[in-house]
Amino acid sequence: MSKQISGLVIAVDGPAASGKGTIARALAKHFSLPHMDTGMLYRSVALNLWRWGGDPASEFEALRACDVSTIDPADPELRSEAVGRIASHVSAYPSVRKALYERQVQFAGQPGGAVLDGRDIGTVIAPDADVKLFVTARTEIRAERRLRELLARGMNAHLEEVLSDIRARDEQDSGRAAAPLLQAQDAVRLDTSELDVDQAIARAIGIAESRLNPPHA
Ligand code: CDP
């Protein structure tokens, strides 16, 4: 029997610029579910901290920045590489992760189900998710994608810088002790290196559908 779609929880994790955000949004649309980009929570903390001149090296100051009520979710600065770098730094603090935990768990647990994307959704936030995807792509490809994204947004960026930023962020996100970037044991890996956006979305929907309606169930 197929699973009731009403309580469906989908976890999408992966490294920077892997395409997880695009895939998560498409899955949310396909299954008519609300979507949370959890990276935006960490980016909001980072922007908040930066705006009031707080020190990212101080866990105490980073924790104070977790009240993000003054940050406009539509602020284009949230998507900048500078803010991404600070986000990666402050997200390694256990107290920051704890402060943002409840909001994410509640979102995942809402009655109709939800799609969340981030780094630790399948491992920490929604370990019982019905579908878990780990979206990845080769580093150089992710850097090219991020560069195109930044240029399209009118931001100034160069491939070498973006590539080294992505490498640094991969290392920091994978190497930290608190909720490191890690493929959940029961996640399906989706490498989008050779796929365009439509192909990646079609593949993700196919994986989700076959998890929900296994061919031999
Ligand atoms: O879009 P991109 O993949 O570059 O980054 P993001 O998803 O917006 O996340 C920004 C940073 O927040 C990441 O480098 C992670 O360090 C952190 N993050 C996290 O620790 N846990 C999450 N669930 C989401 C993001």
Overall pLDDT confidence = 93
Bound molecules: cytidine-5'-diphosphate
How many alpha or pi helices?
A: 9
Largest sheet: 5 strands, parallel
- The secondary-structure class comes to alpha/beta
Distance between the termini: 7 Å
**What radius of gyration results from the CA coordinates?**
17 Å
Strand % is: 5-15%
- Poorly predicted ranges: 1-5
Basic shape: globular
List the strand order in the largest sheet. Answer: 2-3-1-4-5
Order of helices and strands: EHEHHHHEHEHHEH
How many beta-strand runs? 5
Helix residue percentage: 40-55%
Topology readout:
Blueprint: E1 8-13, H1 20-30, E2 35-37, H2 39-51, H3 59-64, H4 81-90, H5 94-108, E3 113-118, H6 121-125, E4 131-136, H7 139-152, H8 159-175, E5 188-191, H9 197-212
Parallel strand pairs: 1-3, 1-4, 2-3, 4-5
The protein binds cytidine-5'-diphosphate (CDP).
Structural account:
The chain has 217 residues and is an alpha/beta fold. The chain is built from nine helices and five strands, in the order βαβααααβαβααβα. It has helices spanning 20-30, 39-51, 59-64, 81-90, 94-108, 121-125, 139-152, 159-175, 197-212; strands at residues 8-13, 35-37, 113-118, 131-136, 188-191. The chain has a five-stranded parallel beta sheet, sandwiched between helices. Residues 1-5 have low confidence and may be disordered. Bound molecules: cytidine-5'-diphosphate. The site of cytidine-5'-diphosphate has 16 residues, from α2, α4 and α8.
